[in-house]
Nucleoside-diphosphate-sugar epimerase
Amino acid sequence: MTKQLITVLGASGLLGRAVARELAARPVRLRLVARRPSPAPARARAEVEVRTVDLAEGGSVAAAVAAADVVIHLVAPSSGAGTWRAAATGPAAGLVGAGLATDLIDALRGRARPPIVLFAGSMSQVGGGARVRLDGNEPDDPLTVYDQQKLAVEQAIEAATAEGVVRGCSLRLATLYSRGPDHDADRGVLAAMARRALADRPLTMWHDGTIARDLLCADDCARAFTAALDEIDAVAGRHWLVGTGQATTIGAAFTMIAQAAAEHTGREPVPVVQVPPAETLMPTDLLDLVLDPSAFQKATGWAPHVPLRDGVESLVAAVARDAN
């Protein structure tokens, strides 16, 4: 019997690496595709193939997903070593949008059995429709190019599912962070602040610190993707909210990082201070974004396992260790 072939698009990023580790423990064929080289998971049970591909090139998407039974679409804007913000507002933002989605869906048409497609959306897609606690029923009013592109992909996958071309869904994710193993691929705010704190630099906020976020460990998020894969009949055809359901203010999260870094440096915790907003400030930076993941939990049985404090301490320890 031929083993299931799972293709991960965007496998070299923070979430891609975590998803690859989860899938590598299964008796499947695993194809890891990214513009940068993707590290193959250690001690893999899966048969792992790594492909370094620029998916913006013509025909590259079709080749990447050829014969795939499952496609996990994690591609996000990238501008090299910079943060995601620079790429998300520039030409690269289209890479997560309708162009790639169209290529992907066209490549999957005509299969005897519709392939499974799972997409990494974002809780910020709701934009101006954000409430105190998101439950998935809010009207979408994306405020940034990044979120507009994410929504375009999600809608394309839902339409293709309704058409019977694929069986797909979108997971709208909370703010992700690494608890250590992949911190070099983590371009998020918690990893950035961990590096600053260990370098004895103040942790800066563009507001008074009361903005709340749902902060989810990438390892827990990866398990959400495998849960969706295992329960595709229950989740196909719509989007789902994936997070911890817990609100943490930015001020509290940064203070936690400063305290964890002080344990490693032996110095006093660096200060957490408010500064004028940078030019890269986005409208969503000033929104409270906290999820209610109960619908997804009920549909799949998934639940987050990593407490925020444990995750932050592991992240800071990994950054400190690799800096020495």
